[in-house]
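**User:** Hello, beginner here. Are you able to go through the protein record under this note? It all follows right here:
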Amino acid sequence: MPKLKTNKSVQKRIRVTKSGKFMKMRAGKRHLLEGKSSKRKRHLRQRDLVSGAMEKTIRRLLPYA
């Protein structure tokens, strides 16, 4: 079998936990920050688990993760 290529753009955005789940950064922290509360911005700093619907797609893009 030939080797599978890793999608490098996804590799830079997603981290894999020890249990095999995928972590991503939350959206909404790039611009228009003045209108968001400090609490909301603080929670946007934390990583988030990828939804189960997207997990199958990401496993295909990161075959060796």
About this structure: The two ends are 18 Å apart (CA to CA). The CA atoms of residues 11 and 62 lie 7 Å apart. The chain is about 35% helix and 15% strand. Helices lie at 8-13, 38-44, 52-61.
